[in-house]
């Protein structure tokens, strides 16, 4: 049986202790279920709602902390880049460079990511359809890299909410063999918590199962030991203790 790609980790790097706790659980699940979960966390959340929101430790320190996870736990790594100059140094540490949804049409960013030779995971913008993602994929491939994944994360129509059209998964599979469902960002309530992003984590398991029915080849989850005290995206992140049950549901 082909196991799905699973990406998981805290939204933003908060502390080495938090990263280690999540990594230990991912290693346990990898061994128990024969998986190869990719560890995800961001060194800089440049697209926070408020200028006063916590963004992360920055690229240099963040990459050192992520590299510690690789060396200690042997996990593959994924993180976001927001500017072209970040691509090369980040590509020296991680296995997958992620392009944030709002930046998915930024040509220079896509080409810089392509030139690293690493997998480039492009998140579909909240204002685009699945069919629109043909062109970001084309930019990466013309940059010399055919290793492109696409990620569905819902569409925004205003009023602090997102809606998911799961047909986007099938549409994006026309352009990439690997289409990921971002199960936690899809339940966000952008800007709906007084200058912060709200969310409804109770819908995450159903989002994952619906994406499975529509043919997703992978799943993205932000998880945290204590989401209520997380510094970013707490309302839509899964409790780490609940992650195994969601993973198991996707393997049945």
Short overview:
The protein is α/β, with parallel strands linked by helices and 252 residues long. It is built from eight helices and 13 strands.
Question: What does it look like?
Answer:
The chain has 8 helices and 13 strands. With 252 residues, it is α/β, with parallel strands linked by helices. The protein has one domain: TIM Barrel. The strands form 3 sheets. It has an 8-stranded parallel β-barrel with strand order 1-2-3-4-5-6-9-12, surrounded by 5 helices. A two-stranded antiparallel sheet has the order 7-8. Helix 1 packs parallel to helix 2 and helix 4 packs across helix 5. It is globular.
What does the secondary structure layout of this molecule look like, with pairings?
Blueprint: E1 5-9, H1 16-33, E2 38-40, H2 59-73, E3 76-80, H3 87-91, E4 96-99, H4 107-115, E5 119-123, H5 134-142, E6 148-152, E7 155-156, E8 162-163, H6 167-172, E9 179-182, E10 188-189, E11 198-199, H7 204-213, E12 218-224, E13 238-239, H8 243-251
Parallel strand pairs: 1-2, 1-12, 2-3, 3-4, 4-5, 5-6, 6-9, 9-12, 12-13
Antiparallel strand pairs: 7-8, 10-11
Helix pairs in contact: 1-2, 4-5
Q: Could you tell me the mean pLDDT?
A: 94
**Broad CATH class:** Alpha Beta
Taking the alpha carbons of the first and last residues, their distance comes to: 11 Å
List the quaternary state of the chains.
single chain
* SS element count, helices: 8
Instruction: State the fourth-level CATH superfamily.
Output: Aldolase class I
Q: Any idea what the shape is? A: globular
How large is the share of residues in beta strands? 15-25%
